Amino acid sequence: MEPVNRALRRIPPWSLYILVAAWVLWMFWQGLQGHLGVDPVKVLEHTYGERALQLLIAGLAVTPLRRFFGLNLMRFRRALGLTAFGLVLCHLLVWLVLDVQIVTQIVADVLKRPYITIGMLGFALMLPLAVTSNNWSIRRLGARWRVLHRLTYGVGLLAGLHYVMLAKGFQLEPLLYFAVILGLVLARVDWKACLIRSDRANARRDSLQNP
Amino acid sequence: GLGSIAGGAVAEEGLATNTWEEVTSYCNFYEFGTGKEDPSYYAGAMTTSPWSVEIDGLVDNPGSYGFEQILEAMTLEERIYRFRCVEAWSMVIPWQGFELADLLALAGVQDGAKYVAFETLLRPDEMPGVRYPVIDWPYREGLRLDEAMNPLTIMATGIFGKPLPNQNGAPLRLVVPWKYGFKSIKSVVKITLTDQEPPTSWNMANAREYGFYSNVNPNVNHPRWSQASERKIGGGLFAKRQPTLMFNGYEAEVASLYEGMDLAKHF
User: Complex ipTM, two decimals?
Assistant: First the structure.
């Protein structure tokens, strides 16, 4: 893996921002030109959302990839998270401005339609993460920063659930996305610590019961 | 044949139709995939000739009716209808077809019949989408007999003066313009007259969201999409939403079918 890691070190993380921003504009331009099929609003809404989900998954995969395969993408993690947030914002804006359009209907949709409620909750959880994705915040928050950024697991699960819930009927693709996210979140659980903790708890209970 | 198209007596004047490309590349036909463009890519594999429709149940003349045999007995006419999907988009489509009532008359509806059940072709080696249990195949739909006999209810065989493309439900499909699009079942191979409300696919998959009637109704809330307004396909990125009409604009013709019914309960 070392040659790959060495090659990756030559790619500046900011190139990801440029790439994603260019892609967002390119897709929008395609929509304006009538190249996104007969329902460009839905195409934009769905591709922005799906690409955001992929970047979220990539962000969640950084640590497991390093731990299990030695692939080091740590330098790109902030850019992955922030571009995912940017795409979620675009996804949300397309839905608000081009799709639903009507303010009262937007409010009703958020409150009454569970998959939209879940999506909005995921977006809300991303806000503190996006705001604190900078060196200054990391220094300021210290240990609390790591705790706060565990919200990414919640965001990932909510995003996956949002996709599963909006699919009509039984569809495979959203379930595969959700399974991958669930796997990545479970990979972050420190199972050994859990076992030790429960061993300790058992021991404590035993010692209380049999003094 | 198409030469015998009569004037669309029931069709509304002045509806601006969508384009051929819009109507034929934006389809829900899950037997060929769940993407809107999947049917236009994959439905070409479906064999539509020879084609026959099994008509059975409470009819005087049950049996297999060949597509050509049906066409010979029917008079085709053009109907320009609004088409409103439950996903809150809509189109205007110029159909060619005949009234379902005429086909049912051919089969001879018996006195006890109260409902009509329909089934779509299920041919796994020509339909990549049915490998997945998206819904419980084959696709099934149903109407109350009076809905089926309403003059607005047609069996379509063409659009824009051409035979139905496969992705639009060739060679023969139902069109019920005052109901959400999924009621207008495609590529029909079976019609059964019955005295019981038949099971219907989306109702079986999710009864909370899809009722048996599924009349277009801006006042009845749907757990997934607001039905108060719709986006008309073809307006580009900045098309304004338009308000959804009661019974999709066919209230004068069909409201009497539901007199005294609580449409919020029988949604």
Answer: 0.85
